[in-house]
Amino acid sequence: MPLIRSMRNIGHRSVDTIWRIGFAARFFVLILLNSGMSFRRFHLTVRELFFTGVMSLIIILVAGLFVGVVLGLQGYETLKSYGSESALGTLVALSLVRELGPVLAALLFASRAGSAMTAEIGLMKATEQIAAMEMMAVNPIARVVAPRFWAGVISMPLLAAMFSAVGVFGGYLVGVVFIGVDEGSFWSQMQSSVDFQHDIMNGVLKSFVFGVAVTVISLFEGFDAPPTAEGVSGATTRTVVQSSVVVLLLDVVLTAIMFRGI
Amino acid sequence: MLWMLGGWFRMRAPKNKSEGSVVSLQPIVEIRDVNFTYDTRPVLKGINMTFHKGKVIAIMGGSGCGKTTLFRLIGGALKPTKGEIKIDGQVMHELDQAGLYEIRRKMGVLFQFGALFTDMSVYDNVAFQMREHTDLPEEMIRDLVMMKLHAVGLRGTHALMPAELSGGMARRVALARTIALDPMLILYDEPFAGLDPISLTAIGSSIRQLNNALGATSVVVTHDVQESLKIVDYIYFISDGVIVAEGTPAEIQASDKPFVHQFVHGEMDGPVPFQYPGGDYKTDLGVSA
Amino acid sequence: MERTALDLWVGAFVLAGLAALAILAFKVGNLSSYNVSESYQLKANFTNIGGLKPTAGVRSAGVLIGRVTDIKLDANRYEAEVTMSIDKRYQFPKDTLISILTSGLLGEQYIGLKPGADDEMLKDKDMIKQSRSAMVLEDLIGQFVAGKAESAK
């Protein structure tokens, strides 16, 4: 009975998914409850900030610059046909600050830092380092997981802001320096249409939410990975796929809440 | 994953305030009628053991006989389905997380492949527990780390990373880390697995010497008969979840029980069959009529 | 890596991130023209606001002096009630004319204030009486067609 078998398969997968979501939520609560050490001994978090934040810097800056350049080129071509090239600054800045900055930075962050976190924690588990820590009466959630979580949450908005800033610069480079859009109207149009609270702060809020989502997924996948080489590699792949889907999904929800009807 | 979360969410049981400090004759570890079942498969069936201070005890058995499960039960990472494990007078599965951590500070565990923290140097690995659990100044930690490393003969490696050590050296560094806080109970999970004869002897004699020097109790879970017979005081044999034999090394060597005989002398077939139970051989080959 | 070198890198990283945020706020965004604490509220009713949106600019003689903070429908009169916050440095007479203007032919809409001659100034939460609604393209075309028909007679 292939029908019944496939139905059973769907049922099994749904139960499994819900089970995992429940455990991830519980894991998230555990991280928050065990966060004291991340701040009392802040150098633990600083160390992770180096690996998640500083090490992601180059990819974020390069990607941001290229996205800004492309936005400048494409935006100019489109706006030119309406005779409103001076709105190029607005186009570049709003797309970056509201959407592309937070979302693309989060996607890059998931594949650069998130996958590394999963692999690291998965390997620590596979080589019994987590169990050893547990047996030394050191809570691995507080000592290993929470500092990585906070490092991710702190660095994500900063990386997104750098992505947007470099992107705007890329748009400026193409639009003003190479194509020759009027510099004054480029900046003034941008400034009059980008609102600090409504656009920039909402963008920061978005990247903060993405940071929480990506780090929780990465850490959970690492912690939950079967302690084998195959298990860790599978978990790393799942981290990137799930983080990307969740970031895009959250972006839809957040955009609907933040920018609805305005 | 499951057992870890389970441990953290364990219901807060009233803390067992029994007996207070250790009475000299009280055993360090008491295992009373412990049963353990994975899903529906019984792994341990009515285990009774008593470990006294100053002794080195070996728990032996073939692969998959429940040694590692027992080991995790003693460490408090698993909860027995039935029965209880008392360490230093406290029932392990009745402790909350704080109580469990309190007792684990007095325990040292050497994992099968050392489980050194790969992102820290040898020095930081040994200093790990001192930094986590004490407020000792860094100079004192340095002295202590050097003493522990010297005890396992690897003082010169303190600046290396674990990846730069050979398997035997990593095991010895892990041993130094295990005894960092002078534990009263040391658990060894397969300390002899995968070592060359020289490292094997080095680890074996270290286990014995450290136990004597610290006045601790050591429990060695292993299947290496020859090496353990040299260093231990008492041996338990586990097969199929029950204790099939126990005694001092001399008694074990003289034992005429078929299982012990097969194990000690490494015979291929005996009470432990070479063939895993399966269907009829001819049927599997497809030659039966 | 040494703890001090690590700290240095992370410090530089955090500073760069904050600097990027500041650039976004001041150079890209309008935080430099924001003065939330020193502003006052004005209101006005319009029969039609066209495409005016919250956060649209309020200008006088072309200079940005405030922003639209809220737009709602006055259910008694079926008119749009627009609330603006205006920089406290700029005071306007009671008989100021408020109108909804468009930058360029199809550009965004904003509010223009044309001061009158009254000696008394508008105060916080005052209502501007004289308003001129947005220019709606369909109405204009309708009027134009009607005018043509009229003159053709």
The fraction of residues in strands of chain C falls at 25-35%
The end-to-end span of chain C amounts to: 91 Å
Could you tell me the mean pLDDT of chain C? 83
What is the overall shape of chain C? elongated
Query: Tally of extended strands of chain A?
Result: 0
| Number of E-state strands of chain C | 8
Radius of gyration of chain C: 23 Å
Please give the domain count of chain C.
2
Largest sheet properties of chain A: none
Helix count, DSSP H or I runs of 4 or more residues of chain C = 2
Strand content of chain A: under 5%
Counting copies of identical and different chains, the oligomeric state is: heterotrimer
Most residues in contact, chain pair and counts = A-C, 36 and 35 residues
What are the main properties of this structure?
heterotrimer; B: 289 residues; alpha/beta; Rossmann fold; six-stranded mixed sheet; four-stranded antiparallel sheet; 11 helices; disordered N terminus; C: 153 residues; 2 domains; eight-stranded mixed sheet; elongated
Structure characterization notes:
- The complex is a heterotrimer of chains A (262), B (289) and C (153).
- Chain A is mainly alpha-helical and 262 residues long.
- Helix content of chain A is 87%, strand content 0%.
- Chain A has helices spanning 2-33, 36-40, 42-52, 57-80, 88-126, 129-135, 140-179, 183-193, 196-224, 229-258.
- Chain A is globular and about 65 Å long.
- Helices cover 36% and strands 21% of the residues of chain B.
- In chain B, helix 7 packs parallel to helix 8.
- The radius of gyration of chain B is 21 Å and the shape is globular.
- The N and C termini of chain B lie far apart (49 Å).
- Residues 1-23 of chain B have low confidence and may be disordered.
- Chain C is an alpha/beta fold and 153 residues long.
- Chain C folds into two domains: 1-32; 35-138, no CATH class.
- In chain C, strands 7-1-4-3-2-6-5-8 form an eight-stranded mixed β-sheet, with no helix packed on it.
- Chain C is elongated.
- Chain C starts with a helix and ends with a helix.
- The interface between A and C is large, with 36 and 35 residues.
